[in-house]
């Protein structure tokens, strides 16, 4: 069905008007928009498709073909996708995998060249992407931008390799994404002056407002662990041309429930102007990244969605290039567009022994403890009295201070150990090979035996997430780079839901325990994190105790 007419309440976002119209679709494009009458109360609304303006597909634990099947159901037609998770594991080959798999679908994936692989020099990644490779990637038409420049200290300190990557993107006329949590004042201005145009890491309105006033585009993020919508949505009506919506990292169970459409629903419920909301959700990403996605204008690709109303944004149908791809909660036609995908991976370490997790007591009165914050990527640093048993520091279950470890997954190396508060486990352990950004194996637990079993279960499967509780165990294998499953997206979502519930039955009160765990190794987000090389101070950008 590539040549047809469809009627409904047409939403002209930039013209700020709604009228009943007939759209003529021919050869995958909008051939005509003919007004028939004023708005009809009983008709659906025709709007451009939604766009996630910054997402790591890998965090859904789904390969692109499976992500697309879940996303189109919610009216999403495109993503601005940063493949730096798989790039940190597999290098340029990982980027190639994502592009090739995404090309099997009618969905519009727009990938970037990962700017920070590895993210820092303070961790072990599986690959490095140099400025030479960045130039090769950015020269490809399917690579539309330089991904988030997480190494903002490198920008501020005029790191030669960082500045080379930025210069290449500027030379080729491709946007540069930012990542600068808490950066303000003169340092922020230098970061912006380097050519960086967006930020999705603002966690206060004041920070976002300063960045807007200095010319940046602000992406309002609402992912599975990092949630900034409530703090930032008040800015949308004052800065409608500078705001976009993104999920950044979204687990499969969340994607089954909804996507950008849910942010539109919440924004309108808070009183935001519906035209400004739709501009953020549908148009601003196209304009900023020069995406070949339809804006519902004559001559554009026919990428649009029908929603029942402009309050709930319940999606009835989604079209891509004039083809029906979703209807009444189900993807349409994807079976013919997809085929089995062979995994790509980089996982090479031996199973661990109990002795690898011992933490000898050396007489310190207090230890630095990571305080995990629910629904945030930032952490606090606490200095707490350790619990001692048999000359070792162990998990303090009563005070919710648990042992956490990171194990190099690329080669055998000593275990890095620290302690974390707020995971809430009363029994057992959780482990994952999803540990931003280098994706070494990370685990947290109440005792060494449980931690050891959980880590070895991940090593056995060469990637995945798992929960260990006494004799019970659950594991979700992630054979693609230790980050993604190549199974059906809905099956993966069900398996993830089950293991998430198990983690919560073990005592965790976190909204998304595994997503929060994965960010405890993300060194570029303050204040305290753990890499495979040791405990890291994200404020000073050095290891704790470093002279």
For the structure shown, list the relevant keywords.
8-stranded mixed sheet, 29 strands, alpha/beta, 547 residues, TIM Barrel
Walk me through this protein's architecture.
- The protein is α/β, with parallel strands linked by helices and 547 residues long.
- The chain has 2 domains: 49-297, Metal-dependent hydrolases (TIM Barrel, Alpha-Beta Barrel); 354-543, no CATH class.
- Helix content is 27%, strand content 28%.
- The chain contains 16 helices and 29 strands.
- The strands form 6 sheets. It has an 8-stranded mixed β-sheet, covered by helices on one side. Strands 18-17-22-21-24-23-25-26 form an 8-stranded mixed β-sheet, with helices on both faces.
- Helix 4 runs parallel beside helix 6 (160-171).
- The chain starts with a strand and ends with a strand.
- The model has no long low-confidence stretch (mean pLDDT 95).
Number of strands: 29
| Neighbour order of strands in the largest sheet | 3-2-1-4-13-14-15-16
What is the CATH fold-level name of the largest domain? TIM Barrel
Report the sheet-strand fraction. Answer: 25-35%
Helix content: 25-40%
Computed Rg = 23 Å
CATH architectural designation of the largest domain: Alpha-Beta Barrel
**Unreliable spans:** none
């Amino acid at each position: 069905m590539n040549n047809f007419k469809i009627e409904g309440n047409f939403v002209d976002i930039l013209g700020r008007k709604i009228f009943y119209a007939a759209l003529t679709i021919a050869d995958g494009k909008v051939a005509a928009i003919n007004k028939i009458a004023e708005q009809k109360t009983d008709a659906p609304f025709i709007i451009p498709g939604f766009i996630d303006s910054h997402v790591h597909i890998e965090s859904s634990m789904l390969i692109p073909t499976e992500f697309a099947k879940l996303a189109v159901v919610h009216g999403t037609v495109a993503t601005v996708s940063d493949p730096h998770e798989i790039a940190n594991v597999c290098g340029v080959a990982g980027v190639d995998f994502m592009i090739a798999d995404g090309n099997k679908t009618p969905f519009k994936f727009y990938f970037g060249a990962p700017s920070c692989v590895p993210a820092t020099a303070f961790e072990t990644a599986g690959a490095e992407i140099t400025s030479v490779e960045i130039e090769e990637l950015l020269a490809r038409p399917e690579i539309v931008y330089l991904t988030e420049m997480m190494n903002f200290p490198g920008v501020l300190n005029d790191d030669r390799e960082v500045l080379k990557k930025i210069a290449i993107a500027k030379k080729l006329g491709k946007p540069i994404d930012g990542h600068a949590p808490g950066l303000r004042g003169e340092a922020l201005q230098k970061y912006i002056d380097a050519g960086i145009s967006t930020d999705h890491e603002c966690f206060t309105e004041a920070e976002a407002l300063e960045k807007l006033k200095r010319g940046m585009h602000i992406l309002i993020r609402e992912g599975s662990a990092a949630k900034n919508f409530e703090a930032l949505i008040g800015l949308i009506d004052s800065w409608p041309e500078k705001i976009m919506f993104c999920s950044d990292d979204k687990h499969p169970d969340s994607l089954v429930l909804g996507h950008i459409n849910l942010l539109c629903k919440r924004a309108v419920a808070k009183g935001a102007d519906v035209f400004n909301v739709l501009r953020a959700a549908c148009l601003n990403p196209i304009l900023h990244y020069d995406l070949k996605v339809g804006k519902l204008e004559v001559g554009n690709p026919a990428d649009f969605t029908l929603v029942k109303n402009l309050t709930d944004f319940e999606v009835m149908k989604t079209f891509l290039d004039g083809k029906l791809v979703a209807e009444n909660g189900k993807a349409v036609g994807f079976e013919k567009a997809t085929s089995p995908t062979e995994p790509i991976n980089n996982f090479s370490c031996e199973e661990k022994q109990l002795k690898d997790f011992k933490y000898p007591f050396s007489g310190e009165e207090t230890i630095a403890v990571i305080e995990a914050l629910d629904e945030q990527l930032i952490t606090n640093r606490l200095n707490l009295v350790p619990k001692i048993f048999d000359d070792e520091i162990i998990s303090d279950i009563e005070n919710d201070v648990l042992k956490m470890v990171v194990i190099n997954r690329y080669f055998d190396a000593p275990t890095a150990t620290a302690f974390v508060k707020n995971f809430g486990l009363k029994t057992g352990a959780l482990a994952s090979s999803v540990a931003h950004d280098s994706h070494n194996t990370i685990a947290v637990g109440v005792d060494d035996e449980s931690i050891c079993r959980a880590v070895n279960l991940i090593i056995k499967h060469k990637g995945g997430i798992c929960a260990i509780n006494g004799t019970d165990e659950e594991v979700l294998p992630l054979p693609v780079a230790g980050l993604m499953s190549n199974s059906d997206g809905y099956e993966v979502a069900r398996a993830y839901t089950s293991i998430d519930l198990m983690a919560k039955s073990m005592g965790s009160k976190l909204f998304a325990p595994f997503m929060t765990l994965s960010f405890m190794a993300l060194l570029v987000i303050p204040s305290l994190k753990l890499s495979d090389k040791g405990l890291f101070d994200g404020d000073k950008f050095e290891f704790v105790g470093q002279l």
